[in-house]
Design goal:
Layout (H helix, E strand, L loop, with lengths): L11 E5 L1 H6 L11 E4 L1 H9 L6 H17 L4 H6 L1 E2 L5 E2 L4 E2 L3 E4 L15 H15 L4 E5 L3 H9 L4 E2 L17 E3 L4 H5 L4 E5 L2 E7 L11 E3 L7 E8 L2 E6 L18 H11 L5 E5 L6 H15 L5 E6 L15 H5 L4 H11 L5 H15 E3 L13 E6 L6 H8 L7 E6 L15 H9 L5 E5 L7 H9 L1
Parallel strand pairs: 1-2, 1-7, 2-6, 7-8, 9-12, 15-19, 15-20, 16-17, 16-18, 18-19
Antiparallel strand pairs: 3-6, 4-5, 10-11, 11-14, 12-13, 13-14
Helix pairs in contact: 8-9, 9-11, 13-14
Amino acid sequence: MSRKPKAREGRRIFVLDTNVLMHDPTCIFRFEEHDVYLPMVVLEELDAHKKGLSEAARNVRQVSRFLDDIIRGASKEQIDRGLPLPAGFSGNHGKRTCSGRLYFQTRLAAAAPTLPTGGNDQEILAETLRLQETLADTRVILVSKDINLRIKAAVLGVHVEDYYSDKTLEDSDVLFGGMAELPTDFWERHGQDVRSWKEGDRTFYEITGPQVAQWQLNQGIYESTAPGIEGIVRRIENERAVIELLRDHRSDRHGVWGITARNREQNFALNLLMDPQIDFVTVLGPAGTGKTLLTLAAGLVQTLDNNRFSEIIMTRVTIPLAEDIGFLPGTEEEKMEPWMGALMDNLEVLTGAQEGGNWGRAATQDLLRNRIKIRSLNFMRGRTFLNRFVILDEAQNLTPKQMKALVTRAGPGTKLACLGNVAQIDTPYLTETTSGLTYVVNRMRGWPHAGHVTLVRGERSRLADFASDVL
């Protein structure tokens, strides 16, 4: 930056580290009205990481295309003055558009006397310190996802921040739970204009009142006191909502493939999984809450008994918990089997109650395996699933981009269930707020054909429940 730009009130300039661009290729558009600055060493590092098939390499190539589009046709004088960022690109998840400028380092900076020479981090810090001296009326902020660089910057008095714009929620603890308890005085305030009717074996209530506006479509509504209602919000118009009473899958009469719900959240999850009007279901919960078992049971009923789906497709991200065990021989399905221990365990539960002894259970398992296909996420690009019940297990290990690639595979008649626990992320550089599972829960919220529930009570064993609480 050889020319000092004109000062404006509250102006900030953000110096981006390479790892921010590799993490989110659209980050240069996400600083609203503020300016973005790229040191030359960052461009060098981008060039060094452009090759390969990894997510980071693809992001680097996308950044290079963005920068090429911005800088194309610009003169040296225009680059020195700063290039306007495209105003049509919406940053911060579409809330506000960017209107700042993009600056490049156009001259070599001498290393600061307080810094050791050599190293890319030192060059970025030296350039940031030079900007602080040159642009005295501007707040210069270094943005990096490298903790050690942030520590060094803080020691030198450089204002430094982590990159937050990719986080869909500020706190994973406030992630939409999918259910809401009615207050004790709800019917006193909303019970005057209640209308009820039946359609077949389903019961509906139309309720009017101020609290209705806070509900979401397909959200679970319940009263904690007996005999309170349990329903799902089907329609909302201003302060008027239509609630459909849930089917009680806690009774054997409404069991699903021999499985009954053991708590309120499981009952709501089974209602979403069995609902033909719901195309997309997300089920969150700690280990042992029954996510996979409930989903598999619902899929088997709708595939084998109701013939709504032609088969069940089950997949997951192949991220190991510890060291990778290496090459696995066999076909795609055989390679995926070691990752699908949850499927085998749950099939044992579902076939354990079958009559006919060991021979009958073995025959049932063979039948189920013919209708359940195990597929790898690596080969999903370009596919279209027709009339399938797709189960994505361990969905918390997907990035938002990978989640979009999978959800868009769904064709007519397909239902997709995403299962996961944001507290068990194994993918490097993903957090509870940047996980694709958190992303999709937040983005699909309120769509008439999507539902979400968070299971809170473990039903696996007393050992598993106690370990989840204290370990």
